[in-house]
Amino acid sequence: RSATLYASLKHEEVTLNYQCELEESEILTIVAAHVLRKHRNHLTSEDMLTAREKIRGVRYYIGRNPSLSTVEPTLDLIENSIRRLGATVVVLDNLHFICRNEENEVAAQANAMQRIKRMAQQYKVKFIVVGQPRKEKQENRGKQIHITDWRGSATGVDDADALFVIHREWIKNADPEHPPMDQYDPMTTITRAKARACGDGPAVARLVFLGAQATFAEIEPEPEYIPEGQTTLGVR
Fold first, then answer.
1. Are 71 and 99 in contact (CB under 8 A)?
2. How do strand 204-210 and strand 184-195 relate by DSSP bridges?
3. Is the pTM value of this prediction over 0.70?
4. Helix, strand, or coil (residue 86)
5. 8 Å CB contact between 168 and 182
6. Is the per-residue pLDDT at 236 higher than 50?
7. Where would you tag: which of 52, 59, 161, 185 has the fewest CB atoms within 10 A of its CB?
């Protein structure tokens, strides 16, 4: 979310962020905390107004329809929204959520990724699909996942132009006097696990997750765009 908001703020991308799980109020809180760099649990009504003014004119749209619980109607809505809004960046968060109620979840994922690929090419959009890994084995808990750990249909990985894995280590010995915000280390590793075409940048980046502000702090510059007509997957 922070990356796509930045793209809309700095590069005038038209972003459609379709959320399957988060409610509108949760997204508004995240956006305000990110824009103001303020603790998201301590935002006031005045803060919300200030954040609104800071992003006035930015074309960043939140999509959500809780009555849609399967893939095809959700993708129909997203495609219609791309046409109506002229979106240049689309986020689907997340694919596995809308495949859960399908009779054949694996086949639904495969068909969805094929359609998403065609939509990205047809409308020249950067389509970001967020997904989930398979349930890990006990001996692998806490380890960074591999490209083959994508849950369900292998076409999720096969059809994507790029796959990025987001990983944070467990905190095993937390300081009881200064407990962390959650059980994971804020140091985050972003790994480009797959790419059809690679630029000159590194395949691994390190960011610091600022949970209270719902954003990341950059340690070193990384490429900021996906070429038109390509799709990416993010596994969290």
1. yes
2. antiparallel
3. yes
4. coil
5. no
6. no
7. 52
